[in-house]
C-alpha cells in the first residue's frame, strides 16, 4: 500500500523527478511540435490571425486617441467637422476589422483546427497503444493512464491554441500597448504589470491543485464509468435487471460520483479564495493607474486624447490581462494534467524487437518459465517447461485458476515470461517483435470478441492482409459447426446496427471459425466452447484436431472428451505442470486427470 502510494506520488507534480520533467516549459516544448505536425497550415493560420487580432486591438487604442484629440482640437477650433468624422470612421473600421478577425479566428480554432488535430492525435495514441506490451493492459495503473491520455486529446489542441493565443495575440497586443504606455508614462506600465504578480502566483497554486485533482480522480472516474456501463450497456442490462441489481449499481455510481464531485468542489473552493484575492489586486491596480492618468492629464503631461484613449483602454487592458491569467493560463493549468498524461503515454516504453520469420518445424518451446501479473506478487505460472513439436496437438487441463490461460498467453508470445524463455518457431518472444512472433499464430480465447460487423467480416478479420475469401469463410464456418440458417455472410451480426442476433453457442462457432480462417503454423483454442454441450464440443475439437494436423496446436479444456483428442495432455495445478501423458497413460494412474475422467465419463461413449 505504502509502495503504491509513493508510486502515485511520484507521478504527481510535487517534488518528484517526474514533476521536474513535466514542467510547463518542457510540456510546451514537447507538445507544440506534435500539435504543429497534426495540422501545420492551420497552426500557421491560427497564429497569423492571432497577430492580426493583437495588432487590431493596439490599433484601436491609437485610433481612440486620434478621435479624442481631433474632437478636442475641434472644440478649440483647430480642427473641423470633416476631420472628426474621418477619425470616427477610422475607429469604426478598426473596431469592425477587429470583430471580423475575432470571428474568423474563433471559427478556425474551434471549428477547423480542433477537430482536425483531435483526429490526428487520436491516431497517434492508437498507434502508440499498438506498440505497448499487451501485458500492460493487465495493469490497472496503465489503464488509468490510458484513459487520462485519451482525455488529453482535446486538451492538447486547446492547450496549444492557448499557447498560440498567448504568443501571437496577447504577445503582440501587450508589446504594442506596452510600448504605447511606456512612451506615455513608464510608471503606468509598471503599475499594470505589478498588479498581476499576485494573480500569477495564485495561478501557480491553481496548477498544482488541478493537476493533483486530475491524478486522484482518474480511478474514481473509471469506477463510475464502469457502474454506468453495468446499468446501461447492452451486455450487462439483462443480468442487471434479472438480478435486480440496478439499485446496487446506482448506489455505487452515486457514491463514486459524490466522491468525485466532492473532490472537484474542494479544489474549486480552494481556488475560488485565490480568485477573490486576484480580483482585489486587479481592482487596486486599475484604481491606481486611473489615478496616475488623471494626475498626468491635470499636470499637462499627456493630452486629453491620450487620457481618453488610455482610460477607455484601461478596462480593456485589465479585462484582457485577467483573461490571460484566469482563462488562458488558468485553462492551460487545467489542461496541463491531461496534456502531461498524453505525453506520459507517448513516453511509455514500447515492446519492440527484431524482425524474424518463425519456423514451426522447431515447434514451440518453453524453458523454465514463470510469470506474475503486473502488480501481483503471486506467480500464476511456475517454472514450466514444455515442447510442442511440429504437428503435435497438446491439451492443457486443470482446475479453474490453475494457470492454463496464462500459460497459453505465454506460449503464444502475447505475454513474455518474467523468468525463463519461450521460443515460438525458434523466435525468442523476449527478443523478437510481437509482429514477427504473432504473425503465424492463431488463437481463440474464452473471451472472444463479438464484432458488430457482418458474419463474413467477423470471420475474415483474423486474416485482414489476405482479403476476404467467401469460399474459405463458408468452409471454416462449416467446420466450426455454424448453423447456416442463422445468418448469411453479408448479414450484420448486431441488432443495434439493424442486423440479426445469434445465440451464444453460434457466436462461439463464429469465433472458432475466425481462428481457423487465419493462416497459421500454431493454433490455439483456449476453451471458447462453454456455451456448447460436451458432445458437440468434442465434435468441434475433433474437427479442429483434423484441421490442425501438421501444425503446432494447443487446446485448453475442462472436458476430457476434447482433451483425449490431443497427442499429449498436460495437467496443471497452481501454476505448475503436475503430470503429462496420453489419455490412456493418465487414466491409468491416480491423479487429478483420472478423477476428472471418472466424473465426466458418462458424458461420452467409452
Ligand atoms: P480458468 O479455467 O478459470 O480459465 P486458468 O487455469 O486459465 O483458469 P488463469 O486464468 O491462467 O487460470 O489464472 C491463473 C492465476 O492467475 C489465477 O490465480 C488468477 O487469479 C491469476 N490471474 C489471471 N488473470 C489475471 C490478471 N489479469 N491479473 C492478475 N491475476 C490474474
What brief labels describe this structure?
606 residues, alpha/beta, ABC transporter transmembrane region fold, Rossmann fold, six-stranded mixed β-sheet, four-stranded antiparallel β-sheet, 20 helices, 10 strands, 9% strand, binds adenosine-5'-triphosphate
Q: Could you explain the architecture of this structure?
A:
It is a single chain. Helix 3 (24-38) packs across helix 6, helix 7 (186-195) runs antiparallel to helix 10 (246-298) and helix 8 packs across helix 9 (234-243). This protein folds into two domains: 2-9 and 22-347, ABC transporter type 1, transmembrane domain (ABC transporter transmembrane region fold, Up-down Bundle), CATH 1.20.1560.10; 352-440 and 552-606, 3-Layer(aba) Sandwich (Rossmann fold), CATH 3.40.50.300. The protein has a six-stranded mixed beta sheet, sandwiched between helices. Strands 2-1-4-5 form a four-stranded antiparallel beta sheet, covered by helices on one side. It is elongated. The longest helix is centred in the middle third of the chain and has 53 residues, at 246-298. Mean pLDDT is 83; it is low at 1-17. The chain is built from 20 helices and ten strands. It has helices at 2-11, 17-21, 24-38, 40-75, 81-131, 140-184, 186-195, 197-232, 234-243, 246-298, 304-347, 404-412, 434-438, 455-460, 470-479, 504-517, 534-547, 560-563, 583-588, 592-600; strands at 364-371, 381-388, 393-398, 419-424, 427-428, 441-444, 522-526, 552-556, 568-573, 576-581. By secondary structure, it is α/β, with parallel strands linked by helices. Adenosine-5'-triphosphate (ATP) binds next to helix 12.
Amino acid at each position: 500500500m505504502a509502495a503504491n502510494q509513493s508510486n502515485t506520488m511520484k507521478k504527481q507534480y510535487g517534488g518528484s523527478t517526474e514533476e521536474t520533467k513535466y514542467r510547463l516549459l518542457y510540456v510546451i516544448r514537447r507538445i507544440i511540435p506534435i500539435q504543429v505536425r497534426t495540422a501545420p497550415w492551420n497552426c500557421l493560420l491560427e497564429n497569423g490571425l492571432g497577430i492580426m487580432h493583437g495588432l487590431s486591438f493596439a490599433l484601436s487604442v491609437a485610433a481612440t486617441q486620434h478621435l479624442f484629440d481631433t474632437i478636442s482640437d475641434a472644440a478649440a477650433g483647430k480642427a473641423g467637422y470633416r476631420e472628426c468624422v474621418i477619425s470616427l470612421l477610422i475607429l469604426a473600421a478598426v473596431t469592425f476589422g477587429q470583430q471580423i478577425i475575432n470571428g474568423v479566428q474563433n471559427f478556425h480554432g474551434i471549428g477547423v483546427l480542433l477537430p482536425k488535430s483531435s483526429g490526428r492525435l487520436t491516431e497517434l495514441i492508437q498507434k502508440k497503444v499498438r506498440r505497448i506490451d499487451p501485458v500492460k493492459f493487465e495493469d490497472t495503473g496503465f489503464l488509468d493512464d490510458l484513459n487520462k491520455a485519451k482525455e488529453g486529446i482535446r486538451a492538447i489542441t486547446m492547450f496549444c491554441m492557448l499557447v498560440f493565443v498567448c504568443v501571437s495575440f496577447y504577445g503582440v497586443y501587450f508589446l504594442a500597448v506596452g510600448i504605447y504606455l511606456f512612451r506615455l508614462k513608464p510608471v503606468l506600465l509598471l503599475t499594470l504589470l505589478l498588479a498581476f504578480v499576485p494573480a500569477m502566483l495564485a495561478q501557480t497554486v491553481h496548477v498544482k491543485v488541478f493537476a493533483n485533482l486530475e491524478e486522484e480522480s482518474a480511478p474514481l472516474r473509471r469506477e463510475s464509468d464502469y457502474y454506468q456501463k453495468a446499468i446501461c450497456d447492452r451486455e450487462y442490462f439483462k443480468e442487471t435487471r434479472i438480478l435486480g441489481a440496478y439499485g446496487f449499481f446506482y448506489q455505487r455510481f452515486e457514491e463514486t460520483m459524490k466522491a468525485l464531485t466532492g473532490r472537484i468542489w474542494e479544489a474549486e473552493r480552494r481556488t475560488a479564495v485565490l480568485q477573490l484575492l486576484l480580483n482585489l489586486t486587479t481592482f487596486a491596480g486599475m484604481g491606481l493607474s486611473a489615478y496616475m492618468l488623471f494626475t498626468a492629464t491635470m499636470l499637462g503631461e499627456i493630452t486629453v486624447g491620450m487620457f481618453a484613449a488610455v482610460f477607455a483602454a484601461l478596462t480593456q487592458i485589465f479585462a484582457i490581462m485577467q483573461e490571460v491569467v484566469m482563462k488562458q493560463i488558468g485553462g492551460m493549468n487545467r489542461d496541463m494534467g491531461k496534456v502531461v498524461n498524453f505525453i506520459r503515454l507517448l513516453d511509455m516504453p514500447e515492446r519492440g524487437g527484431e524482425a524474424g520469420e518463425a519456423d514451426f518445424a522447431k515447434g514451440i518451446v518453453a524453458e523454465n518459465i514463470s510469470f506474475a501479473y503486473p502488480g501481483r506478487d503471486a506467480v500464476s505460472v511456475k517454472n514450466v517447461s514444455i515442447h510442442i513439436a511440429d504437428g503435435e496437438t497438446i491439451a492443457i487441463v486443470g482446475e479453474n485458476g490453475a494457470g492454463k490461460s496464462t500459460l497459453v498467453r505465454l506460449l503464444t508470445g502475447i505475454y513474455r515470461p518474467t523468468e525463463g524463455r519461450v521460443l515460438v518457431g525458434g523466435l525468442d518472444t523476449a527478443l523478437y517483435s510481437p509482429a514477427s512472433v504473432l504473425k503465424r499464430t492463431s488463437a481463440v480465447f474464452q473471451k472472444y470478441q463479438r464484432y458488430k460487423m457482418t458474419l463474413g467480416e467477423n470471420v475474415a478479420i483474423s486474416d485482414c492482409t489476405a482479403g476476404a475469401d467467401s469460399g474459405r469463410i463458408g468452409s471454416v464456418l462449416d467446420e466450426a459447426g455454424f448453423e447456416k440458417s442463422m445468418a448469411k455472410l453479408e448479414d450484420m451480426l448486431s441488432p443495434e446496427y439493424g442486423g440479426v442476433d445469434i445465440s451464444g453457442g453460434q457466436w462461439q462457432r463464429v469465433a472458432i471459425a475466425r481462428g481457423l480462417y487465419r493462416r497459421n503454423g500454431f493454433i490455439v483454442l483456449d476453451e471458447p466452447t462453454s456455451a456448447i454441450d460436451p458432445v458437440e464440443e468434442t465434435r468441434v475439437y475433433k474437427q479442429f484436431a483434423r484441421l490442425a494436423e501438421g501444425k503446432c496446436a494447443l487446446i485448453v479444456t475442462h472436458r476430457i472428451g476434447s482433451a483425449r483428442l490431443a497427442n499429449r495432455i498436460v495437467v496443471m495445478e497452481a501454476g505448475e505442470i503436475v503430470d503429462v501423458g496420453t489419455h490412456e497413460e493418465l487414466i491409468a494412474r491416480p491423479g487429478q486427470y483420472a478423477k476428472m475422467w471418472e466424473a465426466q465419463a458418462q458424458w461420452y461413449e467409452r
